[in-house]
Amino acid sequence: MIGHLKGTLVHQDIKSVILDVSGVGYKVYTNTTSLPKRSAGDKSYKASTTTEFWTYLAVRENALDLYGFGTKEELDFFELLISVSGIGPKSALAILSIATLGNLRHAISTGDTSHLTKVSGIGKKNAEKIVIELKDKLVGLSVDMSASVSGDVDALEALKSLGYGEREVREALKKVSDTKDTGEKIKKALKLLS
Known about the structure:
single chain, 3 domains
């Protein structure tokens, strides 16, 4: 089992990257919108651009697919999602790309399926199944997590009201998720968005 990779990005497309690890190129499916961007016209990544992923190896009859995540927490949540019957690795990756982990945990623990149904291929029935199967596994949410989720929702709405798209706002908020204060979070996200 391949659990972690660290190497140099040599190629990136919409859904995956090729990560060179000691001369071997691994294709890793990931949320590429959160990766560092290349400059316009740049055909390759700089040799110093080192990236690491926590990985999950999906074994199928005709393929071995690697899925990569920036943090162990994202990998753990991904593994929870794929434990739900009918949710495969690609659907789970799509779910993780639409919202922060805090927002997803909050949505599941409160039974709010609206975040989940935004993913292509996840209908109301599958969203309800995810909530039912994972709700008990996420019971131990801390008060800090709930406060953070509330701040994320407030920051999301504030930035959307300024005319930014929901997807770009969510990506910016993921990058400033370490900030607890909602006002600070909005300021940092605005810097990233402009």
